Amino acid sequence: MTSFESPKLVAKIERWPIAGSFTISRGAKTEAVTVVAEVNHGGHTGRGECVPYARYGETPEATLAALAAMLEPVARGLDREALQAAMPAGAARNALDCALLDLETKARGVRVWDLLGRPAPRACTTAYTISLGSPEAMAAATAKAAHRPLLKIKLGGDGDGARIAAVRKSAPESELIVDANEAWTDANLEQNLAECAELGVTLVEQPLPAGNDQALARIRRPLAVCADESAHDRASLDGLRERYDAVNIKLDKTGGLTEALAMANAAQALGFEIMAGCMVATSLSMAPAMLLAQQARFVDLDGPLLLARDRDGGLRYDGSTVYPPDAELWG
Question: Rounded to an integer, what distance in angstroms lies between the CA atom of residue 320 and that of residue 36?
Fold first, then answer.
């Protein structure tokens, strides 16, 4: 292929088995379904991976269709700046944004952090997720992970006090963050927050449903509360200030690394702490988020650790320490 040929976009759905199952308040799944975008030009291939999320009305098939609609703009030379206006925030734009970034680094022979004028990323400590279950099941799973310094505990509403107590007993030394995935109510919010604070939990993620979280502004919060489903891109930040102390920035919500980095800067300017989050996916999804992780107080990039296997050439994990990507994987 010569550089005079037009860039070519291809996309495909991939399925990655999860080790066991992954359970949150909205249900369980046994595989991660991802969509990979590849942009080929000048003998180079840029790749990006996304996870369409039903919670936001996304499906793998609709994501493929959204990417197919970009075939002609990509062939005409669409760049990342124009992409931000050409597609809405979401999984499809994330895959293409990261593919265009990867392609640009390979065409120029530079690493992505040099391209973006940022310092080289350092290895960081990621959270490790404990799926929702009975207190006994969660205690058993936690005991196997108690050597990890940071655990993220999925909760589900009623009975969460018993769950977090069982987890804390099994991992007395680990820092704990919890994620209710919108499962709490105004009625149990303060009790659940108090129980988490008493057990030394550092942060609670999205306790109430997005759009019905006004109670967070009316109460005294005994520990930090982080927005996830309520936080998408920069436009969502202003409405969160009285209710949340932190925001979980995920590339699949922001529509790519370009917006994620801009959102992190804007969030920090407003006083929010940052969590760099992920969906369950391969290292190709995690690699771009390693740049975002450099600004984060909490890093939750354990997706590949929850899979039965990762893609070849994936990120290196040493326990809970995750290292920046090799150029062959991404960026």
Answer: 26
19-48: burial string, b at 16+ Cβ within 10 Å, e else: eeebbbbeeeeeebbbbbbbbbbeebbbbb
Residue indicated by tokens 């970009």:
70
| Catalytically annotated residues | 154, 250
Rounded-to-integer distance, Cα 118 and Cα 112, Å: 8
Residue pair 284/329 in contact (Cβ under 8 Å)? The answer is: yes
Q: Where are the beta strands (DSSP E) in 8-89?
A: 8-24, 27-41, 44-50
* SS3 state at 41: strand
pLDDT digits (tens, 9 = 90+) for 212-261: 999 999 999 999 999 999 999 999 999 999 999 999 999 999 999 999 99
- Give the pair of three-digit tokens for residue 14: 């991939």
Q: Which domains does the chain have, with CATH numbers?
A: 8-111 (3.30.390.10), 124-322 (3.20.20.120)
